[in-house]
């Protein structure tokens, strides 16, 4: 349940945990029991949300409008290690048959080369 701020005319501000459906109703002051109106001093806090969940929500909010790019978080080339396409700077071995066809001994036999 969220916590809301209320203002007692005699005792001052206090915070109470209430259901969202009852948040706009007057809340009795815990000291003098005078009905007090709700005031917005800060955003409502959810006390039952764990720290890990709050961190996950914050991370989600930061990445909602623009996801991280691989160039910002990962390796500088776009293919993974051992790709063999030549973009990593290391070529792969090529086997040429007498009729000119290419074969790649390190590749999977069912893959068609590009």
TrEMBL record:
Pfam families recorded: Zn_ribbon_8 (PF09723)
Cross-referenced InterPro entries: Regulatory_FmdB_Zinc_ribbon
Domain Putative regulatory protein FmdB zinc ribbon: 1-41
Annotated spans, Disordered: 50-114
Domain of life according to the entry: Bacteria
SMART domains for the chain: CxxC_CXXC_SSSS
Designated name of the protein: Zinc ribbon domain-containing protein
Origin species: Azospirillum endophyticum
